[in-house]
């Protein structure tokens, strides 16, 4: 986006300090309050380190290229671009990263590659524990991704 070369959020130093053998996560969400909230919530979890947050896909790709995160938590409802395109753009920057897509309900399933879902899909109405489980599960290389269903839903 024009003029949006390095949009990021300021996080507390506690969220950015390295945790030994932690899952390194990048949050890409269009809403700065949601992005910051996700970073704080996930950063407080044992074994998860949020390295950066970005408000746009191009900035997220720049951070992904630098940080090489294990998982990218992505707003699946980014304006003017599909989740598939967003994931492709970010995957080019961090080929080994797995994806967790957040959706307000516009996505019914995660985009598929060769018939297999290419991301965990978490709906915004799900409890935060479901998101944490998705982040942890996404780093298991052998497990197929799937839509997460909440018991509370």
Helices and strands in order, then pairings?
Layout: H1 13-16, E1 23-28, H2 32-43, E2 48-54, H3 57-67, E3 71-75, H4 83-93, E4 98-103, E5 112-113, E6 116-117, E7 120-123, H5 128-138
Parallel strand pairs: 1-2, 1-3, 3-4, 4-7
Antiparallel strand pairs: 5-6
What attributes characterize this protein structure?
globular, five-stranded parallel β-sheet, about 150 residues, disordered N terminus, Rossmann fold, two-stranded antiparallel sheet, alpha/beta, about 20% strand, disordered C terminus
Structural description of this entry:
- This protein is of the alpha/beta class and 153 residues long.
- The chain has one domain: Rossmann fold.
- Helices cover 32% and strands 21% of the residues.
- It has five helices and seven strands; from the N terminus they run αβαβαβαββββα.
- It has helices at 13-16, 32-43, 57-67, 83-93, 128-138; strands at 23-28, 48-54, 71-75, 98-103, 112-113, 116-117, 120-123.
- It has a five-stranded parallel beta sheet, sandwiched between helices. The chain has a two-stranded antiparallel ribbon with strand order 5-6.
- α3 (57-67) runs parallel beside α4 (83-93).
């Amino acid at each position: 986006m024009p003029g949006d070369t390095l949009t990021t959020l300021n996080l507390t130093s506690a969220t950015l300090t390295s945790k030994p053998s932690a899952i390194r996560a990048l949050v890409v969400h269009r809403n700065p309050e949601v992005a910051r909230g996700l970073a704080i919530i996930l950063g407080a979890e044992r074994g998860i380190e949020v390295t950066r947050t970005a408000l746009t896909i191009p900035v997220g790709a720049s951070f992904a290229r630098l940080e090489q995160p294990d998982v990218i938590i992505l707003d699946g409802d980014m304006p003017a671009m599909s989740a598939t395109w967003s994931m492709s753009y970010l995957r080019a920057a961090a080929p080994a990263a797995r994806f967790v897509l957040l959706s307000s309900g516009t996505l019914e399933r995660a985009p598929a590659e060769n018939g297999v879902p290419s991301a965990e899909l978490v709906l915004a109405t799900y409890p935060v524990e479901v998101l944490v489980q998705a982040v942890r599960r996404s780093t298991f290389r052998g497990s197929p991704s799937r839509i997460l269903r909440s018991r509370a839903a």
